[in-house]
């Protein structure tokens, strides 16, 4: 009998202990430091990128706190970083259940919505519209246009014996976006937009201090300028559509003007300007950084260049003079795409993205309160030897067969919010590679110039290269 009561007492104590422990854990945020008031650890976060090793911010903290989740403060918000494949999987598969998209308040200041909705709501609306333009079937018809613009770009910009690559690839992807989104392909008109877009992109992930001369203030001004220009273009398009001078399907802009929502409401001009602005921003800097990084890696790895060259020349030789690239050609560019994927593993254009907890939940024994900002980090898996053997080695064969383990390779994110422009980006990058290697071999002017992350990959001096055109 005594034994029975003693067992009951032990069981009771165990329950009390478990109850206490679980409640205690409920109060336990992941370990970490929130750094300085206001700016938190933003400077360290950005500085590891400026030094060329953005992964260091994450890896230092993983090893310091022995945890794949740690708290910090980024861009003015206390944030929990979810690192590793498990962190990615958790965030991507709990979208709109436990977590939702979130942008730092600085983004809302640079992209103030004309409809008084937040950037989060804007993204939901934009996401609903995009599949129509960006689905693979629709995209296939753009390949010829991409090839034409790409050829014109190389003819006009890749001239002389030396060029600086990063600004050039920006011109290429921006030109393409202007042509395919708003049907502007006059290089002078495109150029008028290009500078303010550069300023805008540089300010998005800067420290959000709105004072004269700061990158943040400059980005807000640039956003206002671009919005005005876009409004003028939209007004003109409305006139052209009315006069039959523009077609209903010629680009994203026409589509936005003639498509109503489920209640039959059409978007207002200012609303369309907001959406085109987000698309032009999201859609050109990312892909241009990949194109430029490809040029850098191919310069450093002649054996990789050689295989890309052979693959692309086989396609080039199969074409009649003047015949443009098509979908069948793209399907043959398998090795080239593996190279581009490996470039995006080592130099992902976006280092990660934010989420917000929709409710209180537990992750790995840590409590995450409702409203807490969360961040997934591409580098926490891309450059982690746990997921990629010899992670700093350039090896396109990683993408052969079934490729990397799920949730380890995430340059485009994952889950319901995965980048909707992924296929568009794939096409513009492959078309770029085709026209590049078909024309040139090249060498870096500064042999040890490295990529730095600001926060997108960029070469310190813009990657000057010497061009060696192939003999006809
Ligand atoms: C190599 C090029 C690109 C890369 C690496 C890339 C990567 C990404 C990533 C990581 C995200 C964030 C996903 C998240 O929040 O978890 C994203 C979102 C987005 N991307 Fe891309 N992107 C690229 C090109 C493009 C292009 C060409 C377009 C448009 C044509 C585009 C449109 C968007 C949009 C609209 C979003 C927001 C989606 C949402 O919030 O639901 N991207 N992209």
From TrEMBL:
Metal-binding as UniProt keyword: yes
What is the superkingdom listed in this entry's lineage?
Answer: Eukaryota
| Listed CDD domains | CYP90-like
A molecular function annotated in GO for this UniProt entry is: monooxygenase activity
Q: Where in the cell is it found?
A: Membrane
* Key words of the record: Heme, Iron, Membrane, Metal-binding, Monooxygenase, Oxidoreductase, Transmembrane, Transmembrane helix
Tell me which stretches of the chain form a coiled coil. none
Pfam families in the cross-refs:
p450 (PF00067)
- Residues bound to heme are 419
Q: Which InterPro entries match?
A: Cyt_P450, Cyt_P450_CS, Cyt_P450_E_grp-I, Cyt_P450_sf
Please provide the Gene Ontology terms (biological process) for this protein: sterol metabolic process
Q: Report the cofactors.
A: heme
Membrane topology (UniProt): Single-pass membrane protein
Tell me its family. Answer: Belongs to the cytochrome P450 family.
Q: What is this protein called?
A: Beta-amyrin 28-oxidase
Q: Give the originating organism.
A: Camellia sinensis var. sinensis (China tea)
């Amino acid at each position: 009998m005594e034994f029975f009561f003693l067992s009951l007492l032990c069981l009771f104590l165990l329950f009390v202990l478990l109850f206490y422990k679980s409640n205690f854990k409920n109060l336990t945020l992941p370990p970490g430091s929130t750094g300085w008031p206001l700016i938190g650890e933003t400077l360290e976060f950005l500085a590891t990128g400026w030094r060329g090793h953005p992964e260091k911010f994450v890896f230092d903290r993983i090893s310091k706190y022995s945890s794949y989740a740690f708290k910090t403060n980024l861009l003015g918000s206390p944030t929990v970083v979810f690192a590793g494949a498990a962190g990615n999987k958790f965030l991507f598969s709990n979208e709109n259940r436990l977590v939702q998209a979130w942008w730092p308040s600085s983004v809302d200041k640079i992209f103030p919505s004309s409809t008084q909705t937040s950037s989060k709501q804007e993204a939901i609306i934009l996401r609903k519209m995009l599949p129509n333009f960006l689905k693979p079937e629709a995209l296939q018809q753009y390949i010829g246009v991409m090839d034409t613009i790409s050829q014109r770009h190389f003819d006009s910009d890749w001239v002389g014996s030396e060029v600086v690559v990063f600004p050039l690839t920006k011109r290429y992807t921006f030109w393409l976006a202007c042509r395919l989104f708003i049907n502007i392909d006059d290089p002078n008109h495109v150029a008028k937009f290009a500078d303010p877009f550069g300023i805008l992109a540089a300010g998005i992930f800067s420290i959000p201090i709105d004072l004269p001369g700061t990158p943040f203030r400059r980005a807000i001004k640039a956003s206002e300028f671009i919005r005005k220009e876009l409004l003028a273009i939209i007004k003109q398009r409305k006139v052209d559509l009315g006069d039959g001078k523009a077609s209903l399907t010629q680009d994203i802009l026409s589509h936005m003007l003639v498509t109503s929502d489920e209640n039959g409401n059409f978007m207002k001009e200012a609303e369309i300007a907001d959406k085109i602005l987000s698309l032009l921003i999201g859609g050109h800097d990312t892909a241009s950084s990949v194109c430029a990084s490809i040029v850098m890696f191919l310069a450093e790895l002649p054996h990789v260049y050689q295989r890309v060259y052979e693959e692309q020349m086989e396609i080039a030789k199969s074409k009649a003079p003047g015949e443009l690239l098509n979908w069948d050609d793209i399907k043959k560019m398998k090795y080239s795409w593996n190279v581009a994927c490996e470039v995006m593993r080592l130099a992902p254009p976006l280092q990660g993205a934010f989420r917000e907890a929709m409710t209180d939940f537990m992750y790995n024994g840590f409590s995450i309160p409702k409203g807490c900002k969360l961040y997934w980090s591409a580098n926490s898996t891309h450059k982690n030897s746990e997921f990629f053997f010899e992670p700093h080695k350039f090896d396109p064969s990683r993408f052969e067969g079934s490729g990397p383990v799920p949730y380890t390779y995430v340059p485009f994110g994952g889950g319901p919010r995965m980048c909707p422009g992924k296929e568009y980006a794939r096409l513009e990058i492959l078309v770029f590679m085709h026209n590049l290697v078909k024309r040139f071999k090249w060498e870096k002017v500064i042999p040890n110039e490295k990529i730095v992350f600001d926060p997108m990959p960029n070469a310190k001096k813009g990657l000057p290269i010497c061009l060696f055109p192939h003999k006809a």
